[in-house]
Amino acid sequence: MAVVVLNTQGWVLDARSLIDQGYSRCIRFRNNNQKSHIKCLFKRQCFQNVNSHYSASDAVDGGNTDMLQKTEKPSKKRKRKHSELNHGEVDSQAFHEKIRSVVLEGTKSLVDSARSLGYLNGATDTVKEPLPSQECSLAALCEMAKELPLVDDEEHEECVQILVAEDGRTSHVDLFSWVTENRADWAAVVTLMGEEYVIPPHTAFLLSDFTRIQPLVHYGRSFDLIVMDPPWENKSVKRSRRYSSLPSSQLKRLPIPLLASMNCLVVTWVTNRPSHLRFVRDELYPHWGVEVVAEWFWVKVTTSGQFVFPLDSHHKKPYEVLVLGRYCSAADDTTSSSETSEVPVEDQRLIVSVPSALHSQKPSLSEVLKPYIRAEAKCLELFARSLQPGWTSWGNEVLKFQHTSYFTLTPTDDGTNVPKDEAADDCADKPTLTPVLSSPGESSRHGHCPTTVD
Asked: What residue spans carry the region label Disordered (predicted)?
């Protein structure tokens, strides 16, 4: 059950179950012109966050309310006096004091409800395997792709390439210059750039960096929901060098007005740095014509329902902020409110979940945002590091968490996890997917839009 609890405070999510929903039916394409039916599950050890970052003297029975109210134990290192706090730290503390009771009381209510259902009770799978440690080279490949000339606008207009054709065959694909779609009702395990990736059903993606986002604009889609997790600048990122950050001012260049439909819900993950939050609320959203409607909080807990960090820690907080807004183009302000109104978005709601042990893997928001968008909404994730069924995703690491090293793949003999018509097509010739970095001059080799299916 992906959504464990829903109440007036928010949700408790089973983040791993949310991922697994997209892989109930999966086919693996091999180099030997054969395919097999398999079951894909995201590795359980990635969500076995058992221990909170408290010292032994901080621990209390069962990780209950007393635990939730604990503050950080003083470090042995010399602490600066309060008067020595810089302006950013003072802002952070003021923001924390403003929302502290909301996070504390809401988390207690949600965790208590989850425990009554047998969830967040400390039980874990007995998985002793190490975490996946696949090194991601996708961003480097995107840098290489930048050496190629941009495809002409007219040539690229509304062109997509199909990952797996209707007859079950795969084809050569250019992941860097075209939006790639898996239109099938089943997930596909395919070889891309010499590595195997699991691609969810009814999904589309573009692998590129900030300077090569044009194919997404020319994709010809207007989205009703846009979620983004920008690579915010901070000292931790600079030290770790896990990924390259992006100056806040550069975010204004994102073509949100060209991608958003009228009344599109725009959701941005924001760090706990007040300057980033102010920038989104006061500069970024107004620049795009997006009106702020709510702030939500993702609260990270252990499998026992304890905060992963002390709530009052001066270093790391157990929560992150999401800013939600509605896009309203000035050109469409004559549209009546009855034609554009959506379900009002409640302010200060909580999303409680056990976080992934993998860096920067956020929980899917697809289930919690459903009530606030129309039934057949088109959804887009920017700066994505994974794919979601039914969504379009863009980023320079958009396939990172789709690598098979993050999944447990189990063969199934009866083919019950795929449609019968697909199971009957085992003998079709299916060459390996080999992405090509093609220039416009090479497009005549396979046509301007070679694999588009009407």
From this structure: 58-90, 411-454
